[in-house]
Design goal:
Organism: Streptomyces bluensis
Helix content: over 70%
Shape: flat
Order of helices and strands: HHH
Keywords: Membrane, Transmembrane, Transmembrane helix
Strand content: under 5%
Largest sheet: none
Protein name: Secreted protein
Distance between the termini: 26 Å
Structural class: mainly alpha
Length: 64
């Protein structure tokens, strides 16, 4: 839960920065948000979640 909330917050910040910088207009941003919303309710949602979890675990296992 904490990882998905962090990812959502990070993506929201990136979206706001892109919109304020003029690199992304409001229309395409709304389309991207709706795409993500509807993608979350498809059968691919579990695969995407597993993929993101594996990336997070990989990053977490890196030792400096």
């Amino acid at each position: 839960m904490a990882i998905s909330l962090s990812v959502v917050l990070l993506l929201a910040i990136i979206l706001v920065v892109l919109m304020r910088g003029g690199n992304l207009k409001a229309g395409p941003a709304v389309v991207a948000i709706l795409f993500g919303f509807f993608l979350a309710s498809t059968g691919m949602a579990d695969d995407i979640q597993r993929f993101l979890n594996s990336i997070a675990e990989t990053i977490n296992s890196i030792r400096f």
